[in-house]
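This section describes the prediction task in plain terms. A model, or a person checking by hand, is given the sequence of a single protein chain and must write out its three-dimensional structure as a string of tokens. No templates, partner chains or ligands are provided. The sample shown here is typical of the held-out split.
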Amino acid sequence: MTALHYQGLVEIGAMIASRQVSAVEVTRHQLERCQSLASLNAFITLLAERALAQAEAADRDIATGLRRSVLHGVPIALKDLYDFAGTPTTAGMPSRLDAIATANATVTQRLIDAGAVILGKTCLTEGAYAEHRAPFKTPVNPWNPDRWCGASSSGSAVGVAAGLFFAGLATETGGSIRIPSAMNGVTGFKPSWGRVSRAGIYPLAASLDHAGPIARSATDAAAVLGIIAGRDSADPTSSRRPVENYLAEANASLKGMRIGIDMAFSYAGTDPEHVSAMLAAADTLRDLGAELIAITLPNSGQIIWDWFDVCAVQNALVNGTVTAEQPGALGPALTALVARGRALQGTDYQMVINRANAFRGDFEALFADLDLVLSPAMAFSPPPNEAMENLSDDMISGIHRFTCPFTMSGHPVLSMPGGVHSDGMPINIQLIGPLYGEATLARAGMAFQKATQWHRRRPLS
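The expected answer:
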């Protein structure tokens, strides 16, 4: 029997709705697990009393026949970039320890309105960039404590993998939904830029920031995305496109779906075991009825390095005042990023933007003849922690090669467990969709996971 803490989000929601178990019982169980596994450092702030109050309210609603959503009564967690009124939004920055939110982020409010139980705020790198900084702790990879836990949404991915909560709200600017999902063997759903409101989320780089869920399955991630997506007047960049029912095709066939693979893009510099996992995933998708098509992606080699310039210029707008007014308040990596942004010439920045726009247009054009693109999610297995202290260009490229191009272009991506490395660490594969192609991604991801068991592996009992 599946342990309570490893039930699927949709399943536990149904159990709460049918009163097989109460939201309070589930919440207490999760809080006890969070406390017993506190050494994983998933949380900056655990909000036990507030969570129990939300669970009690959910049980009262459900007892009267009111079910707000599939999330009603289900414990989740927020990356500590999301404003949650009355609690600090630290953004992983020591300088923001006392930055108490006075209102909820739009996503936070949508989750509350859906009846979710918010257990707390999860650990992340400083300002959602490169390094974890004291007094905040570095989350621990539950598969192997000596291996890297991933990028800025590390606490959300660690907590989902370890069964601390049923979904973690995350953000991605260069890969921070997909990288920690891959490092921890869980499912991450990066939506199209503009699909989810960014209002009330502390920014890293506005034109690159995406808000989305990390969960243990495509079904659960799609369920959360369906709740948080949609137009928001507080974020003028949010899309007016209607939000589709991402769970509607949970049992749909993939017959006739066209999925492209660029073998040169997938092979170059990639661990052979990760390539093998992708090829096995291609076989599974083919068996499910999809047609696999050889393609050539637009060149993305320069995009990885261009990403740093875009991120730097835009973060200088966010944190430039901090570096000016509080010298030494930011860590070395974030300080260097701000300095890089301030130093970049306007004409050079515009050349970067021109290249990004060209890549976006060329990539989107592929979907005239395709439904999705398949690739590895990462170039290699989670590196040893010490290898992340002084990164080489090859390491930086390997981390970002399958992520940065699609944050620069704004396309939606679903990262899912697809194998196991010989070192025992999980391997993820990813599917990339056309702009606002989240429903197609959800359909393919749910079908793949019905046919495989990789997403059911657990690092801890």
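For orientation: The longest strand covers residues 413-420.
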